Amino acid sequence: MRLRNHRLVKIILIFSLTASLLIGCSPKEQAKAPLTKSNYLLGTLIEITLYDHQDEKTIDAAFDRIREIETKMTINSENPSQITKLNDASGSHEVELSEDTFYVLEKGKYYSEISGGEFDITIGPIVKLWNIGTEYAAIPDPQILADSLKLVDYNKLTLNKDKLTAKLEAEAMKVDLGAIAKGYAADEVASILRDHGVKHAIINLGGNILTMGSNVSGNPWKIGIQDPYHPRNDYIGIVNVTDKTVVTSGIYERYFEQDGKRYHHILEPKTGYPADNGLAGVSIIADKSIDGDGLSTSVFVLGLEKGMKLIESLDNVEALFITTDKKIYMTKGFKAVFTQTNNEYKVME
């Protein structure tokens, strides 16, 4: 069995691209090097780069906010988080939450609803069985998996906005915010940077890319779309974005291989197995990273046809789909900002 984690690939790609955008700036702009700091939080390497500020305290404040979010929402800490307490109270009683934890749960339930359960934040029991992304990754016992599937049902997550409480109605249910918390953290980082006067920045939370403003030359940022079959610095094309987030989900991010078959981390809540619907990757352009996060997983599991239909029903959201037969499908808005760089893939009209 072979275990890999390739989320760092996108980080290397994005920052090599954005650094090259400084070419052609005025001498004054060229002399002002970007300020970059990184940290490992939320289970991934995070990098924040400021292009018009040199105050490290600004980035430090952003990292402090991410740590606060992680403390409240992680399920992978010895110290119980609010989500851990919610899971431990399943089938028993409601749990009081902070405003931000409640907001993320509310958003997660929203995407569970509009995806018809193809995105389900109560998928925690299934995620735990597979353990993909850890040294314990393995195919679950079919009977145990079948029993655990009975615990996956976002309708049994009750939220009370007036009291800021949540309850899992059935014992042993578990919420997992791994598919949406990073997006929220990216949005919160952007808010902090804006409060400190930052206008030009790149925020990268393990592949959740959020761009602030334009680059310092006034042009859009160039963000690479990873080739899902080449887990290195290869991409199928670039998108030009300003004040947008680009979030990608794909079969290359976290997976393990057993008996010649790849098992990736994007699990289908109704079967309990990795989604297998002809998609290799999905990229979302949105205003908020939490929306890009929730949608990239939702439409990946929905598949091309249903996923495209969902995206086209929403405002200010665009999507690119990469199929396993190396074809690219895009919404009209995505196509307008996309430049293909890898001719192995065929862009479909």
UniProtKB/TrEMBL annotation:
Gene3D superfamilies: ApbE-like domains. Pfam families: ApbE. It is an enzyme of class 2 (transferase). Its EC number is 2.7.1.180. It is found in: Cell inner membrane. It catalyses: L-threonyl-[protein] + FAD = FMN-L-threonyl-[protein] + AMP + H(+). InterPro entries: ApbE (IPR024932), ApbE-like_sf (IPR003374). Its cofactor is Mg(2+). The lineage of its organism: Bacteria, Bacillati, Bacillota, Clostridia, Lutisporales. Its main location: membrane. Keywords: Cell inner membrane, Cell membrane, FAD, Flavoprotein, Lipoprotein, Magnesium, Membrane, Metal-binding, Transferase. Belongs to the ApbE family. Flavin transferase that catalyzes the transfer of the FMN moiety of FAD and its covalent binding to the hydroxyl group of a threonine residue in a target flavoprotein. This is FAD:protein FMN transferase. GO terms for molecular function: transferase activity. It comes from the Bacteria. It is a lipid-anchor. It comes from Lutispora saccharofermentans.
